[in-house]
Design a protein that fits this description.
The structure holds 2 protein chains of 2 kinds. Chain A is an alpha/beta fold. Chain A contains 11 helices and 11 strands. Chain A has one domain: TIM Barrel, CATH 3.20.20. In chain A, strands 1-2-5-7-8-9-10-11 form an 8-stranded parallel β-barrel, surrounded by 5 helices. Chain A has a 3-stranded mixed β-sheet with strand order 3-4-6. By secondary structure, chain B is α/β, with parallel strands linked by helices. The two termini of chain B are 19 Å apart. Chain B has a 6-stranded parallel β-sheet. In chain B, α2 packs parallel to α10, α6 runs parallel beside α7 and α9 crosses α10. The chains are: A alpha/beta, B alpha/beta. Chains A and B meet through α1, β4 and α11 of A and β3 and β7 of B. The structure holds zinc ion. The site of zinc ion (ZN) has 6 residues of chain B, from loops. Zinc ion binds next to loops of chain B.
Chain lengths: 320, 342
């Protein structure tokens, strides 16, 4: 059995670093200084996270404004538009506006390279995973000003995202986390979903991790179980009731156990987390203990405390 | 008991107004300890004088103090209510951060939060009616971390008791018109049921005019709850959505006025007088003029000051032109008797 602690989506961008980034974007800070500060900040954060016992982290760690940013600014046919509410959070993303035929252009590889170099120089022992928005969520959260059919749009988005995933895999990333919070909504268009995912699974054959959050994905588990996935990330912090269904579903591969609430400052106890791990270990033998979503919604200090508990929970049964 | 009759289509603001540049610089210095508190207080007072004058020069009938003393609408109240604490700020988009408060202990009303704001505004404005704004219990609950109460609903109801005391304190001080700001109200539609009850609880026993402002949501989803909502006015944003969905006001209960948003606060382009007139004429197809106030969509604070000023001038000019066609009396606002013991 494998039990590891992992992050999903990202870690809160510290306030001081946000100020720095904003100065850099406004042209008030030169690139060299910015990159130095970034390296120092990232090294410090990664070291602290890894020392907490978290062994897998997304490489976009506090660099992206939102999950769509690099794709909306790189892919052909898409631009970044106005600010929109991200799901039901008091958190906003720039809406991807589709203005032409969507085609792949490298979006995240340069960042991957930079982060890998920082990790190597800092001698930080951590596995990195890539994060991409899922095509279904992308479709539901973008503004379409070009395509006349949703099917054509989602297929092109999936094609472009699949291409990105393939290149990330070729660059040595072993896990690709695909964000699909829209799968927790009541009615998912299964036809569109399956068409889109066939484009991704035909390009990347292993290491796909579909992440769902802020609600139960239990009504959609059978459809998901038909895909060639490695991990399904489920939210049991906000939707604990779905755990039984997940355990009795046909999903056979690894589970991302989203047991740490990324929207609450109440810190979970090690005991709570252990109990959950024990429960899912009856069915799964690959378990990743994670927050239920990206941790941008809570203060950095709380996020550190939460992942410290995660580390303790997976760190064998040494203390406690 | 005295009352004030307003002109038809009374013009007002939603609340916030751009801080003068010098005030922003003063605040920065004050926060780094380079300016004494009493000088900062004088600066805040003078800023209120300036922005009230801006509004009055533009011709606004019911000015506010521009919320010059408030950095942020939830933080300001959380800092002044017992039971809240703050961690490091969280990011809400790009590199914009929010000092999101956390409730860690039972809430406690530690004395009035906005009465001094009202009393100062009253001495500064030449208008018979001024507007005060208060962040509503639902929005404070929604924008806070809840570490103490068992549910968000319980927290919102506890907050409603605090807001109720604040509203009563404002009434005692003589404030005739308060607007409860609830921008979070349309974010979790499943909670509207009890959210409306929490707002009603906040205004229980309050005998002054109370309105409510909500922006950037699906208003149609709110309609079924409006009958039960005890505020007398709803200030909604419509310019930003290019006056779409305007028919929704046809379904307003008859006891509710509309504060009609005619100025887009997220766009620096200044509207033309004709655009504003067209918007007002359109809404008049759905609601009688007696139940209509005219205001911008939302607080003006993110605009450059000169653009805010110009937008207000355009709004008032549009109304003045319409008043020549609509020769009717405007609504009446009752003035509460200030209780000077306070
Ligand atoms: Zn507003």
């Amino acid at each position: 059995m494998i039990v590891e602690a992992a992050l999903v989506g990202g870690f809160p961008r510290p306030f001081n670093f946000g100020r720095l980034m904003s100065r850099y974007r406004d042209g008030k800070l030169d690139q060299e200084t910015y990159e130095k500060k970034l390296e120092a900040e990232l090294t410090k954060a990664l070291t602290k996270i890894v020392n907490s016992g978290v062994s897998i982290i997304p490489f976009n760690m506090f660099l992206w404004d939102d999950i769509f940013e690099p794709f909306a600014s790189s892919f052909e046919g898409i631009e970044r538009g106005g600010l929109y509410r991200f799901l039901d959070n008091n958190f906003y993303y720039r809406i991807p506006v589709v203005k032409g035929r969507v085609k792949h252009r490298d979006a995240t590889l340069a960042t991957l390279k930079t982060v890998k170099e920082i990790i190597d120089r800092g001698e930080i022992r951590v596995k990195i995973k890539a994060v991409i928005p899922g095509p279904y969520t992308f479709l539901r959260m973008c503004e379409n000003k070009y395509y006349s059919s949703e099917e054509e749009l989602i297929v092109d988005i999936a094609e472009a995202l699949g291409e990105e995933a393939k290149r990330l895999e070729e660059s040595g990333v072993s896990l690709i986390e695909i964000h699909e919070p829209m799968l927790v909504s009541e009615k998912v268009d299964t036809g569109l979903f399956e068409k889109a995912y066939s484009r991704i699974t035909s390009k990347v054959s292993k290491g796909l991790w579909v992440q769902t959050y802020f609600g139960p994905v239990s009504n959609f588990l059978e459809e998901l179980s038909r895909l060639k996935l490695d991990v399904i990330g489920v939210d049991v912090a906000e939707a604990p009731e779905q755990l039984e269904k997940v355990l009795s579903s046909g999903v056979e591969w690894g589970i991302g156990l989203g047991a740490v609430d990324s929207r609450s400052t109440k810190v979970e106890t090690v005991k709570q987390l252990r109990t959950l791990i024990k429960k899912v270990s009856e069915k799964f033998d690959k378990i990743y203990l994670t927050p239920n979503a990206m941790m941008d919604f809570i203060p950095v200090s709380i996020a550190y405390e939460k992942i410290r508990r995660m580390g303790l929970a997976v760190g064998g049964l040494k203390n406690e | 008991m005295s009352e004030v009759r307003l002109p038809v289509l009374p013009t007002t603001v939603i609340g916030s107004y751009p801080r003068p540049t010098w005030l922003r610089r003063m605040i920065k210095l004050w926060k780094s300890g380079k300016i004494e508190d009493e000088h900062m207080k004088e600066a805040f007072d003078d800023a209120v004088v300036s922005v009230v004058r801006d509004q009055e020069n533009a011709g606004v009938d019911i000015p506010s103090d521009g919320e010059q003393r408030r950095d942020e609408m939830v933080e300001y109240f959380a800092e002044r209510i017992g039971g809240f604490k703050f961690y490091d700020p969280i990011r809400i988009w790009g590199n914009a951060y929010f000092k999101k408060p956390a409730v860690y202990a039972p809430l406690e009303y530690k004395g009035s939060i906005t009465v001094n704001e009202y009393l100062f505004l009253r001495t500064v404005s030449t208008r018979p009616i001024v507007k005060m704004t208060i962040t509503g219990p639902y929005t404070i609950a929604d924008w806070s971390f809840n570490e103490y109460y068992s549910t968000k609903e319980e927290l919102a109801f506890e907050l409603s008791k605090i807001i109720n005391r604040e509203l009563k304190a404002l009434e005692e001080a003589g404030a005739p018109y308060v607007q409860i700001d609830e921008p979070a109200l349309t974010t979790h539609l499943k909670e509207l049921d009890w959210a409306v009850e929490a707002i009603n609880n906040a205004i229980k026993g309050v005998n002054i005019k109370v309105g409510m402002h909500v922006c950037y949501g699906e208003y149609s989803r709110m309609i079924p709850y409006l009958d039960n909502l005890k505020v007398s006015q709803l200030a909604f944003e419509f310019a930003n959505r290019s006056f779409k969905d305007i028919e929704v006001v046809k379904k307003f209960p008859e006891d509710k006025e509309l504060g009609f948003g005619v100025i887009d606060v997220h766009n620096r382009r200044v509207e033309t007088v004709d655009e504003v007139i067209a918007g007002i004429k359109k809404v008049l197809e759905f609601i009688p003029v007696e139940r209509l106030y005219i205001n911008p969509d939302c607080g003006l604070k993110l605009l450059p000051r000169e653009i805010a000023r110009e937008k207000m001038r355009v709004m008032v000019e549009a109304v003045n032109r319409l008043r020549k066609e609509i020769r009717k009396e405007g609504p009446v606002i009752r003035l509460p008797q200030p209780n000077l013991k306070q």
